[in-house]
Design brief:
By secondary structure, this protein is of the alpha+beta class. The chain has one domain: 2-Layer Sandwich (60s Ribosomal Protein L30, Chain: A). Helix content is 29%, strand content 24%. A 7-stranded mixed beta sheet has the order 1-2-3-4-7-5-6. Strand 5, helix 3 and strand 6 form a beta-alpha-beta unit. The radius of gyration is 15 Å and the shape is globular. It starts with a helix and ends with a strand. It comes from Anthostomella pinea. This is Uu.00g060130.m01.CDS01.
Length: 157
Amino acid sequence: MKSIIALRAALGTTALAKLQPNYTSPAGVEIYNPSTFFASTGPWSLMSKAGNVLYIAGMRGIYRSNSTLAPTGLPRIQLAFENMIALAEMEGTDRYSCARLVVYTTDMYRFRPLCNQVQQELWGNDTNMYPPRTIVEVDRLNDDDIVEVEGTFWVAP
């Protein structure tokens, strides 16, 4: 819970700077790879924006400061969600404007309860405020990780 409180304090300063896209397609799709985040681990970008819809790639529990993974379990899952929300806030939206979450985990039995716990810490106990979520167990994730969380957010005009 302490890391969630620290995240909320830190994110308040992150959202002040207007993020600039790294590339804009001829159709107007903006691609983002903020320099304050870890570099992508392959040929993909961290997020894109089409109109007022923000798409955030599967975030993992990677520390932005040194591109290493947080310890397995709750710390890594918290950081994956925190990274996703930090990106959303950098583009001027917030967790409550999340239109959809997709969570991938390698062990539903072990990690689904931790994902639920982190979501409750972030969105509170009012179930009416939870974004729709799909959680899927997969055989394997990049770097043998335990969870990835991707989000789709509405960005007000």
